[in-house]
Amino acid sequence: QVQLVESGGGLVQPGGSLRLSCAASGFFFSSYAVMWFHQAPGKERELVASIATTGTTTYHTDSVKGRFTISRDDAKNTVYLQMDIMRPEDSGMYYCHARSIIDFTSIRGQGTQVTVSA
């Protein structure tokens, strides 16, 4: 079964850390670029970070630069989003999205909830 499963969300205090995981199965993960999206309550989904197939090219949106880090471990078919120095505005759903560099097939996960609150 082709799927992406996010995990690692939860409740954290401002200034704290979480590490999200996006586990892939059922497809050749190494040929997919992967993105993390954030959707705050009542707002549109926004790109937070992305990582190329090689893992050497990454992108982080300005609001998370210096705080969040995307990485991948193809041996484990998993992409991570390390989130540090978290802020209340980081709260919301986080979604993993994989896109093939061969045929541009897209696969999306169901998301994981993050709440940053004292």
Q: Topology of this protein?
A:
Elements lengths: L2 E5 L2 E3 L5 E8 L6 E8 L6 E6 L6 E3 L7 E6 L4 E6 L8 E9 L5 E3 L3 E5 L2
Parallel strand pairs: 2-11
Antiparallel strand pairs: 1-3, 3-8, 4-5, 4-9, 5-6, 7-8, 9-10, 9-11
The SSE order reads EEEEEEEEEEE
Strand content: over 45%
The CA-CA distance between the termini, in Å, is 39 Å
Mean pLDDT, nearest integer? 96
User: Structural class, judged by helices and strands?
Assistant: mainly beta
Give a structural overview:
With 118 residues, the chain is mainly beta. Helices cover 0% and strands 53% of the residues. The chain has no helices and 11 strands. The strands form 2 sheets. Strands 2, 4, 5, 6, 9, 10 and 11 form a 7-stranded mixed β-sheet that branches. A 4-stranded antiparallel β-sheet has the order 1-3-8-7, with no helix packed on it. The radius of gyration is 14 Å and the shape is globular. The N and C termini lie far apart (39 Å). The mean pLDDT is 96.
Features:
mainly beta; 53% strand; 4-stranded antiparallel sheet; 118 residues
In summary, what is this structure?
With 118 residues, the protein is mainly β. The protein has no helices and 11 strands. Strand 5 and strand 6 form a beta hairpin.
